[in-house]
Specification:
The protein is mainly alpha-helical. It is 50% helix and 7% strand. It contains 17 helices and 6 strands. A 3-stranded antiparallel sheet has the order 1-2-3, with no helix packed on it. Strands 4-5-6 form a 3-stranded antiparallel sheet. A hairpin with a 2-residue loop joins β5 and β6. α8 packs antiparallel against α13. It is globular. The protein binds s-citryldethia Coenzyme A. S-citryldethia Coenzyme A (SDX) binds next to α16.
């Protein structure tokens, strides 16, 4: 793959490293051998580091491009559904009609969870955060299936992936029902992935929820938009955990923990809370000023991105979906949406945001949309987990399918104490 090399001159020595070019994106300098030369590269936060080679997702932050297996997110959001996308991300392409029918049937069959899982949930207070519940339930799933999965066998990895994709909606809806003090609702055969999720979330007292197809399509599209995003913090966590050979359910639990943070997946919940706090258009300038004030830790939630220095293409689709849901629900004068639209307009004209290339990201409109769909804000990140599980497990499988994969183990620059002797406590 190497077409050229990078030369480095250190202490009168010259080191040469191969440069590789992918299909798109920045060429990479392979510094694997630099450790043998007695040096490490130093890149806290991995701002300039490609941690792996992947064929799953490509992001062009400058142009606001997002491709899943080469397909533009805009086309996938309009022309496919989440089962198409999940198949595409995991197996490498959109399914044929028969492949899709088989895949949907397999996923539907695997959606129910063991009764014991309900007992695990009973250990949580109904006020507990659903993400904490999801982490524990994934650990419980690992305890049920660990012995049956050999991660070195591709067929076992495929089976584990289908189980995770199938059971995460059931687990997520269980957490919601528990927080409402209700018993879980079982999935039903014959419903689509998004329909089943809404059924398990909103059916109650023996009465099935009325499945409004505009709202079902919105939920399905939200799953597509959140399904994968190359080497973000939570996906990198799943890859790193998976590189030790750990159980796939446990690796996904680690990814959930990483996604929970407000700088990452927790931003949708924080963004809605921020819009509620702003509450009216005339308070926007005060919050814009706070976001620009270095002394103030406040950041405009739903704005900015490590990679996108242009509009997040998912935010554009999310805004359209938000409109559709608000119209369908008759929330034409949704004050939060008005605040969000005005906040976006003002921020995009403000030189601070323009200079720092801070644009709305996927989380900016997802909170308002999920809120209008009747999803409580503390479940927003759990919805993100539901969708991203497909991306996580696709990366996990891709990594383990390589014959050159090895355990991830970064080094460091040590700046602590030089060697010194322990003194008896009476002399310390
Ligand atoms: C997701 O990685 C992914 O792909 C993530 C994700 C995915 O699908 O997996 O896309 C999902 O996590 C989206 C991001 C959701 N997070 C938020 O919306 C939280 C608010 N955003 C910020 O916390 C921030 O923008 C980050 C964390 C998203 C990105 O942080 P970076 O890349 O480390 O950028 P930075 O902190 O270095 O910021 C650069 C400058 C700084 O100012 P200076 O130090 O240069 O003066 O921009 C400022 C920051 O202070 N800045 C903001 C800001 N985001 C960055 N100022 C005000 N409000 C903001 N939101």
């Amino acid at each position: 793959m190497s077409k050229s090399t990078a030369k480095m001159h250190i202490n009168q020595q010259e080191f040469e490293f191969p440069i590789y070019e992918g299909t798109y994106g920045a060429p990479v300098i392979d510094v694997t051998s630099i450790g043998k030369q007695g040096f490490y590269t130093f890149d806290p936060g991995f701002l300039g580091t490609a941690a792996c080679e992947s064929k799953i997702t490509f992001i062009d932050g400058a142009k606001g491009i997002l491709l899943y297996r080469g397909y533009p997110i805009e086309q996938l959001a309009e022309q496919t559904d989440f089962m198409d996308v999940a198949h595409c991300l995991f197996f490498g392409d959109l399914p044929t009609t028969s492949e899709k029918a088989t895949f949907i049937n397999e996923i539907n069959t695997l959606m129910p969870v063991k009764d014991e899982l309900h007992s695990v949930l009973d250990g949580f207070q109904t006020t507990g955060h659903p993400i904490a519940m999801q982490i524990s339930l994934l650990g419980a799933e690992a305890s049920y299936y660990h012995e049956a999965i050999d991660i070195n066998k591709s067929d076992d990895r495929v089976r584990a992936a289908k189980m995770l994709i199938a059971k995460i909606p059931t687990i997520t809806a269980m957490c919601f029902q528990h927080s409402q003090g209700h018993k879980p609702i079982q999935p039903e055969s014959g419903l689509s992935y998004a329909e089943n999720f809404m059924h398990m979330m909103f059916s109650k007292d023996g009465k099935d929820v009325e499945l409004n197809q505009t709202l079902v399509k919105a939920i399905d599209r939200i799953f597509t938009l959140h399904a994968d995003h190359e080497q973000n913090a939570s996906t990198s966590t799943v890859r790193l955990a998976g590189s030790t050979g750990t159980d796939p359910f446990a690796a996904v639990a680690a990814g959930i923990a990483a996604l929970w943070g407000p700088a990452h997946g927790g931003a949708n919940e924080s963004c809605l809370n921020m819009l509620r706090e702003i509450a009216s258009v005339d308070k926007i300038p005060e919050y814009i000023a706070r976001a620009k004030d270095k002394a103030d830790p406040f950041r405009l939630m739903g704005f900015g991105h490590r990679v996108y220095k242009n509009y997040d293409p998912r935010a554009t689709i999310m805004r359209k979906t938000c409109h559709e849901v608000l119209n369908e629900k008759g929330c034409h004068d949704d004050s939060l949406f008005k605040v969000a639209m005005e906040l976006e307009r003002i921020a995009l004209e403000d030189e601070y945001f323009v200079e720092k290339k801070l644009y709305p990201n996927v989380d900016f409109y997802s909170g308002i949309t999920l809120n209008a769909l009747g999803i409580p804000s503390n479940l927003f990140t759990s919805m993100f987990v539901l969708a991203r599980t497909t991306g996580w497990i696709s990366h996990w499988h891709e990594m383990l399918s390589r014959d050159d994969f090895r355990i991830s183990r970064p080094r460091q620059m040590y700046s602590g104490a030089a060697t010194r002797d322990v003194l008896p406590i009476t002399e310390r």
